[in-house]
Amino acid sequence: MKARWDIFCSVVDNYGDIGVTWRLARQLVAEHGCGVRLWVDDLRAFERLCPEVDVRLDRQVQEGVDVRRWPADWPATEAADVVIAAFACQLPPGYMEAMAARARTPLWMNLDYLSAEDWVVGCHGLPSVKFKGVQKYFFFPGFRAGTGGLLREAGLLGRRLAFQRNAAWQQQFLQTLGVFPAAGARLMSLFAYENAGLASWLDVLAADGCTTHLLIPEGRILGDVQRWLGIESLSVGDVQQRGALTVQVLPFVPQTQYDHLLWCCDFNAVRGEDSFVRAQWAGRPFLWHIYRQDEDIHLDKLDAFLELYTEGLSAPARTALVSLWQAWNADGNMAHSWKKLLEHWPELTVHAEKWCLEQGSRPDLATALVQFYVNWI
């Protein structure tokens, strides 16, 4: 009999938390035959990623996953064999009592945030707190051996490569979004938090000798784009041109379509955690807008990833990439660092694909979680 899994997701950053848990739940069902209940406290945010979700329902099945509303008044519920608290969310007290009441206690894991910091390897898989005899374990996604790996569906990289080799497929997909880039234009995507450094980047793109078509999924960065354009409103479907730069606002799309969008683009600016990982699977140069934390501790995570990611780059290419990422995450001036990055574009493009294949050779996160459970029992 396959194990039953409960995954708890408290939506904090709109789409990152639910994005990760929704991908994980689907993969556990589709590839490992697990029975999965996904408890979500914000179905409205979930609906953006999965439009089929009915936000009025307390229980529904989507792609084989038993999706449950996480209510304020917790009902009596039998605990599953494996319990995942995503991103250190606090489980309902009633559910914790149900875990302790089981004849065989469940495996309880805290699926933590993704980090490239050295200490993650030493903490991955270690026991944490106990609740009435139920032991919780740390489970860390990561980029190194000795961590839980990254979310990656079976065959993903093969599908991506086939898509990127087929210009007709890419054109057909873009046309479904109303995107018709000029011949030879650099195609870029921008999904980010608010950023005061955006104007300097758009300025240099508009003045560039190469045309750029910038695709912006509906989100928090639109206000900054609107101010730079000097217009009163900016909404889905709008297309604006300034010099060599064309800006186009896209609707928020489901996860599979977002993957295809990343695969189409020559460069992707992403944010948070879920889109950060998906940009790496695209095998193209990218820019990460990390979620800000108190006392700037997020910058340690940024630097740790950059140290790992830039291994193998020439010193000038590494300097250009690091400068761009640091400027973007400090709301700094992007003009000089973007121009320097363009000087090393071929090397950075080859490196992005190499990094993707290297990470793709490691066990994926869902498989690592299942293996952890098998080892535990």
From TrEMBL:
Residues spanning the signal sequence = none
Kindly give the InterPro entries that the UniProt entry links to this protein.
Answer: EarP
Q: Which UniProt keywords apply?
A: Elongation factor, Glycosyltransferase, Protein biosynthesis, Transferase
Catalysed conversion reaction: dTDP-beta-L-rhamnose + L-arginyl-[protein] = N(omega)-(alpha-L-rhamnosyl)-L-arginyl-[protein] + dTDP + H(+)
Q: Which GO terms describe its molecular function?
A: protein-arginine rhamnosyltransferase activity; translation elongation factor activity
By its UniProt entry, which Pfam families does this protein fall under? EarP
Can you tell me which family this protein belongs to?
Belongs to the glycosyltransferase 104 family.
The job of this chain, per UniProt, is described as:
Protein-arginine rhamnosyltransferase that catalyzes the transfer of a single rhamnose to elongation factor P (EF-P) on 'Lys-32', a modification required for EF-P-dependent rescue of polyproline stalled ribosomes.
Q: What is this protein called?
A: Protein-arginine rhamnosyltransferase
* Species annotation: Pseudomonas spelaei
